[in-house]
Design goal:
Elements (H helix, E strand, L loop, with lengths): L6 H9 L6 E4 L6 E4 L5 H20 L3 E7 L8 E6 L6 E6 L6 E2 L6 E2 L8 E6 L2 H11 L13 E3 L3 H19 L6 E8 L6 E9 L8 H8 L5 E5 L4 H10 L17 E4 L9 H8 L4 H5 L1 E5 L2 E5 L3 H7 L11 H21 L10 H15 L5 H7 L1 H9 L11 H24 L10 H29 L4 H8 L3 H9 L1 H17 L3 H5 L8 H4 L5
Antiparallel strand pairs: 1-2, 3-11, 3-12, 4-5, 4-9, 5-8, 6-7, 10-11, 10-13, 14-15
Helix pairs in contact: 2-6, 2-18, 4-5, 10-11, 10-13, 10-14, 10-15, 11-14, 12-13, 16-17
The structure holds zinc ion.
The site of zinc ion (ZN) has 9 residues, from α2.
Length: 536
């Protein structure tokens, strides 16, 4: 049995509960679940402390850790225009066009090709006109009139730039070492507090001694768009990067919401996972104790039990198996059908090497096939003759008759497809399943263990609830154990709820980097007032 938490421990459990979330349908299990809003103080704090822990975990298993910042020169900042509707001053369009113009480097001698060249999208969004007016002034790339031709433009985060940078960087590393070296990154893309300039911070983890002296040189060479700064990470590097994430609590809402341009953080694939190698080995044999109780790690002198996070759980145990009503046969069918659909689009679009076909590419290809290439009239016939595609769309929770028309619809569907495809692929890879012609005994076993895990986890949680039930007020029990829109609303109205909310607010405020400058931007966050609770 676990020990009961102290009052302080209990406060910290409660302060990580989001009271602004929503009840939704769990995309994996089709059951109701409560999802945190992702923007309020409780959410931001939880995110940043989880990010710090993950960074420390990766650090514990890496020899080197560097902190790197990438910024743009004015001429190379990815540009966008915001066009306001003539009928409704609060309605705007965020317009990014592919760039026919080439950029030049700082000395204006060398052309930089390929910058943001694939970006081509628009978003319609609402934002109060008076705030938009102020944002246009602050965010204009003209730098107070120094670059008049950039008057109408604002900068945006082009994640493509970072991806291409990493590609060049990895290439340089493999050329230097003459072999493939596994490197890990935690990147934060954000908007600066003064002019909302997009830039990136990232932590780089690796083991190769020969690489260490070349990090700076390689980073500069691979980032031709402006400054690149680097340093070996100090002790608190991970919390520093995580703290930047919290400054996103002070930028205009649309910069933290529009899917392709929003400020956010990302971990590289399999980040920190090696730490759980032994736990995973046990899990494959049906022993889940580390997955439920965590693995110990010492961070800044404190011993913490870190549980494998969701991406690790999802690759070890098929998340669709968490729904107790689905049978093993259905789940095996799902894995086989998704893999089959992928190989069919590969054949159709002439992709030879299926293993290098990314899940994003697979999602795009399936989207193209179903929504662009097949005439809507023939779709029913197509589903009939290709039942694995309809099964795939069903599990991805995509309406078979969907007619995506806005960029937002397209992004949503692609996101749903990507989630399903990458989940099934990671699971197959984790269990070394490669034959999808029929349901193999290996697949059946992996699915069975997944089902067992989710049953064990439910039991574990139930035990915890029973243990807490004896001494906890039912209002708090609901919120900490199975929150819903209703239970958190009830909780936030109690005086203890108000106390906790205020506490998260002030903890978040303290953790924002460059707090003073950032505080000037509070007005740009329309919802900010909603998250602020005055003392009672
Ligand atoms: Zn929240």
């Amino acid at each position: 049995m676990q020990e009961l938490p102290t009052q302080k421990g209990f406060d910290s459990i409660m302060s990580s509960v989001c009271t602004h979330g929503k009840d939704i349908i769990n995309p994996y299990t089709n059951q109701h679940m409560y999802i945190p809003c992702g923007k309020c103080p409780a959410c931001l704090l939880k995110k940043s402390s989880m990010a710090s822990i993950k960074c420390e975990v990766q650090r514990a298993i890496s020899r080197y850790c560097y902190m790197i910042t990438l910024t743009y020169d004015t001429n190379t900042v990815p540009r966008a225009r915001i066009i306001t509707s003539e009928d409704d001053p609060d309605l705007h369009k965020f317009v990014v066009k592919p760039r026919p113009i080439l950029y030049y480097d700082r000395k204006k001698t060398r052309k930089i090709e390929g910058l943001s060249h694939t970006d081509d999208f628009t978003y319609d969004f609402r934002y109060p006109s008076e705030l938009m007016r102020d944002y246009r002034i602050k965010g204009s790339l003209s730098c107070d009139g120094k670059y008049p031709y950039l008057n109408d433009y604002v900068g945006y985060l082009s994640w493509k730039d970072f991806q291409l940078f990493m590609k060049r960087f990895r290439f340089k590393i493999s050329k230097l070492l003459g072999r493939y070296e596994k490197i890990h990154t935690y990147v934060t893309g954000e908007y600066s507090p003064i002019h909302f300039r997009p830039h990136f911070h990232f932590l780089l983890f690796f083991d190769a001694e020969e690489l260490a002296p070349h990090v700076g040189e390689f980073v500069s060479a691979c980032w031709p768009y402006g400054r690149a700064d680097w340093s070996a990470a100090r002790k608190d590097a991970s919390s520093y990067v995580a703290g930047y994430t919290n400054s996103s609590s002070r930028i205009p809402d649309f910069l933290s919401e529009l899917p392709q341009i929003r400020a956010k953080s990302r971990f590289s694939n399999h980040f920190g996972e090696k730490f759980f190698t032994i736990a995973k080995r046990f899990a494959h044999e049906g022993q889940f104790s580390t997955f439920l109780n965590g693995e110990s790690i010492t961070i800044n002198g404190r011993v913490l039990d870190v549980r494998p996070w969701r991406s690790i759980i999802n690759s070890c145990f098929l998340p669709y198996a968490a729904n107790t009503r689905r049978t093993g046969d259905e789940l095996c069918r799902l894995v086989v059908d998704v893999q089959r659909a992928i190989s069919q689009v590969c054949t159709r679009y002439g992709v030879r090497d299926k293993s290098s076909f990314s899940s994003t590419q697979a999602a795009n290809a399936i989207y193209k096939l179903v929504f662009n290439d097949i005439d809507p009239i023939d779709r029913n016939e197509f589903y009939r003759s290709h039942p694995h595609f309809s099964n795939l769309l069903f599990f991805a929770r995509i309406n078979l008759d969907a007619h995506p028309f806005s960029q937002y619809d397209v992004d949503t569907i692609l996101g749903q497809l990507y989630r399903l495809i990458s989940t099934v692929r990671n699971f197959s890879k984790e269990w070394h399943i490669s034959n999808f012609d029929y349901v193999t005994p290996e697949l059946r076993n992996a699915v069975k263990i997944s089902q067992d895990f989710y049953v064990s986890r439910d039991m574990y949680n139930l035990k915890k609830i029973l243990q807490y039930e004896e001494f906890l007020d039912p209002v708090f029990l609901d919120v900490s154990m199975h929150p819903s829109e209703e239970s958190v609303k009830r909780f936030s109205k109690t005086s203890y709820g108000t106390f906790i909310l205020n506490k998260s607010r002030s903890r978040l405020d303290d953790s924002v980097k460059h707090r003073e400058i950032n505080d000037h931007n509070i007005k740009f966050v329309v919802d900010y007032g909603n998250y602020k609770t005055e003392a009672v």
